[in-house]
Design brief:
Layout lengths: L10 E5 L4 H12 L3 E6 L4 H10 L3 E6 L5 H15 L4 E4 L15 H11 L1 H17 L2 E8 L8 H21 L4 E8 L2 E2 L14 H17 L6 E2 H12 L10 E4 L6
Parallel strand pairs: 1-2, 1-4, 2-3, 4-5, 5-6, 6-9, 7-8
The protein binds nicotinamide-adenine-dinucleotide.
Nicotinamide-adenine-dinucleotide (NAD) binds next to helix 1, helix 4 and strand 5.
């Protein structure tokens, strides 16, 4: 069977591309002909670009902190300077930093969760709009989570609920400019050990118990009672990022074995 080339000559930004789901998405899009801009605040993103180039794909990295608007603007300016346009933006930065009941979170921790899992998507959407509006075309895919209904990560749940709201409303507002906005609500995803930890501090015994609570709840809430693979997320994300989904906008697609979030 001939390989699909759904992203041939398309300029695609993937944020949080140094590992995990973002890495999988960046590699898959490059293998389908995309010109990928891999954004991350970790230098390890360079290794992913090397992998892409070894496979004769097109990949450029941009080191930036997407928790700031300045970082998001730097990324968009970089992509425009390199390639002259932006066809697709995949907002993947996020992930819960702590696992515990809400009453255990401090004010600083709540702010850190929202800053990690809501603001990068908000900043990047805002930063890319002038370019997409001037092109009269664009496609944004936000990586959300089925944890909008889940225990022991309420600030993260709230952040991803915000991502879903932004997806629906921005799609509504920008359809007239030829811009589509969708999200994938990712379910529990099996991944290799993280080279870049979400939380540098080792877990206490109590935190391990709470974390296990998240794992158990995720498996129980999934009709299939299992975690998914990175590939299972990548397939759904690429569908929304490609023209195959050209009549879909404002949608949050749950990919969690039947867990609707
Ligand atoms: N892994 C899961 O089980 C799961 C489940 C549901 C939803 N998700 C969502 O999927 C997405 C990816 O998850 P993952 O587990 O692959 O993530 P991860 O934590 O393994 O990797 C995140 C990447 O983002 C980068 N990053 C973090 N903060 C950044 C910043 N401020 N600026 C630039 N880069 C930054 C990190 O360096 C890292 O490379 C997240 O939005 C997460 O919420 C994941």
């Amino acid at each position: 069977m001939r390989k699909k080339l759904r992203f041939k000559d398309k300029v695609v930004i993937v944020t949080g591309a140094a590992q995990g789901i973002g890495e999988g998405v960046a590699i898959a899009i490059a293998s389908e002909g995309g010109k990928v801009v891999l954004a991350d605040r970790s230098d390890l993103v360079k290794d992913v670009v090397k992998k892409i180039k070894l496979n004769k794909g097109s990949g450029e990295y941009c080191i930036c902190d997407l928790e700031t608007f300045a970082g998001a603007k730097k990324l968009i300016a970089f992509a425009i300077k390199k390639f002259g346009r932006i066809d697709v933006l995949i907002n993947n930065v996020g992930g819960t930093i702590w696992a515990k009941p809400f009453e255990e979170y401090s004010e600083e921790q709540i702010m850190a969760e929202v800053t990690r899992s809501l603001l990068p998507t908000l900043w990047c959407c805002r930063a890319v709009l002038p370019q997409m509006i001037s092109q009269a075309s664009g496609n944004i895919v936000n990586i959300s989570s089925i944890a909008t209904r889940g225990i022991y990560r309420i600030p993260y749940s709230a952040s991803k609920g915000g991502v879903n709201a932004m997806t629906a409303s921005l799609a509504f507002e920008q359809a007239k400019n030829g811009i589509r906005v969708n999200a994938v609500a990712t379910g529990g995803t099996q991944a290799p050990p993280r080279r870049i930890p979400r939380n540098k501090n080792p877990m206490t015994k109590q935190e391990e118990i709470w974390y296990q609570g998240i794992v158990d709840q995720t498996i129980e809430s999934s009709l299939m009672h299992r975690y998914g693979s990175i590939d299972e997320q990548v397939h759904a994300i690429l569908f929304l990022a490609s023209d195959e989904s050209s009549y879909i906008t404002g949608t949050v697609l749950p990919v969690g074995g039947g867990d609707q979030g």
